[in-house]
Amino acid sequence: MRIDRRRALAAGGAILSTLALPPLRAQGKPMRIGSTLPLTGPLASLAIIHKVTAEICVENLNKRGGLLGRPVEWVLRDDQSKPELTRTLYEQLITSDKVDLIQSPYATASILAAMGVAQRYNKVLLHTSFGIPKLAKYDMQFQTAGSPFDPENVWPNHIFDAAAKLPKPPKTVAIVTSKFPSVHAISVGAREVLKKRGLTEVLHLEYEFGNRDYGAIASRVKEANPDFLWGGTNGIDPVLMLEAMKKIDYRPPAQVHLFPAPGPMLKLPEAQGALALTTFESHPPFTDDPAIAQFVKTYGERAKEAGIPYTAVDLQSAIMYASWQVLEAAVTATKGTDDKAIAAWLKKNEVKTLFGTLRWNGPQNYVEGADLYKIKQLQQGRWVVVHPSQWTAPGANII
Amino acid sequence: MPSATLLGQSVLSGVFIGALYGLLGLGLTLSWGMLRQVNLAHFALAFLGGYLTFQLSARLDPFVILALVAPVFFVLGMALHWFFLRFSVTLLNTLLVTFGITSIIEAGIQWYWTADFHRMENAYAAVRWKLGPLFVSLTDMVTLGFALALALGTWGVLRFTDLGKAIRATTEDAPIAAAFGVNEKLLGYLVSGLAAAVAAVAGLCLALNHTLAPVQIYAWMGVVFAAVMMGGLGRPIGPLVAGIVIGVSEAITMAVTNPTWAPLVSFSLLIAILLFRPARF
Hints:
The complex is a heterodimer.
Chain A: H1 5-20, E1 31-37, H2 44-63, E2 72-78, H3 83-95, E3 101-102, H4 108-120, E4 125-127, E5 141-143, H5 151-163, E6 172-178, H6 181-196, E7 200-207, H7 215-224, E8 228-235, H8 237-247, E9 255-260, H9 262-266, E10 275-278, H10 290-305, H11 315-334, H12 339-348, E11 350-353, E12 356-359, E13 374-379, E14 382-387
Parallel strand pairs in A: 1-2, 1-3, 4-5, 6-7, 6-8, 8-9
Antiparallel strand pairs in A: 10-13, 11-12, 13-14
Chain B: H1 4-35, H2 41-56, H3 62-86, H4 91-113, E1 128-131, E2 134-137, H5 138-160, H6 162-172, H7 174-179, H8 184-209, H9 221-231, H10 237-256, H11 262-276
Antiparallel strand pairs in B: 1-2
Helix pairs in contact in B: 1-5, 1-8, 1-9, 1-10, 2-3, 2-4, 2-8, 3-8, 5-6, 5-8, 6-8, 9-10, 9-11, 10-11
């Protein structure tokens, strides 16, 4: 067929106009997704990570044409780190703001509070950070963190599996744990797991969350002289503990801290080599997917703008991102915002997220005995996944 | 049975944390005991001082920063006193007003420095000495040194100088003191400014020894209040002694039993003192 000049120009114009078209534009009434985060109060340092992540997710969704062709509007309220306020705000979101769907608040107590409200109004609740799965009795709650039904069993085994790969595998363990509910429950589980693995517990200490002085605790660990320090710690506690140890010229030969604040740990020479739990770190193979690599880049920029000291995507950011991935998948698959339909779909299906494939086909919508958590290690000022092998950073070995 | 080294190191640890309780309590006891103002904002000011030290530490030595921040805080303390006088704020209302000011300062800190944790990198943190089997760090010694110097210095001024006598007379009976020519208002400004300047010193010690986060403003309130009440209102040395007693008791509790019992110690001591020495308050 001969193509004349006019037809060629028309075809070229059509192609150009297609290329010049803006991204799919969402139309109609916005789909309103409501949630709270602890933007103030003790959990605020972690909430800002969730906020920045969710904003990127909503922005990306709208760039892709929204959900079911409708623009997505995220209705966010500050629960001030108070579960009782979380409960009230979710009531408001559902009854007054009349949101179409709800998303996760942050941390166990607030999620439990929101779960009660969700149950009263038959709303699906996706949640990112619920530390005690056995308390999640509501039939339409779904975790998006990749955690197991029995973290007190699965996570200590992950950690001791990784510790067994250390150049000097530990034989003796000192367990020092905060009484913060989730890490405490995991540490209680660790005591049983280490016995089964033939390890010896040389010290077991519990301290109140919010403890200010770690001097005596550091001295007791030094005196116990374990091969491996099990830190049932979260947030800034491990930093304070290691600084107290530094003051008495002691450094544990090997150590794990369950959920440390990643940024402050980086700057601490004594923390080098520390193990911790994670779902995602900003390196291949996690970033092999270009969309995820782009998210990591965007998050780094936005986190810097927001004044977040640690700008790499890790556990906290990843669980929030996964929550929006699950929401998008379920709404798209069910072609609606009917909570019961979404819950039914989630129970029968799985969703591929940035840190693995989520399923909800076990007890209380969890999976027993398996999860998507990994073990990371602080190496030369950088967190890298070192266990299991399919998720390790290129060239990284446990040291 | 814990070893002598463990007990010794724990006692040292308790003395140092107690010194910080005493330092934080000094400003509080002055404003409460002398001015009848329960100044919760003292804690927020101390943390603001810590954050300013952290912020400027990239360019200046922490002690130079203190020389800059303390006078500014002195003026802030005077401004706060002016506010209380201007609006005739009662003792109970000072508690409410300063709680509000604390929230505002906390929000300001969170807005500027975010809610995340911050740790001041400084060369002093690496300095420590070995005394037999025990270790002592420079930053802890700095805290103890400041706490002792300020508590004893303030006590000395109140006890032995005309200025101190005038302040004590004003606290005892302001109208009579005024009748003898004491300038009550000026002394109020001075004490309030001094209390705020002490918060700047406590801020430096917080930044040297601890990780900063806005929410931690509230973490120190309970135990420091206990130290102030045990030490006696308006007594500069009292909070330091009480703070060290609390700190050492907590540390020994952590050394010999489960550390989870430690927080009970300070408040059990407070209740015991309230029961057996109620006249002190």
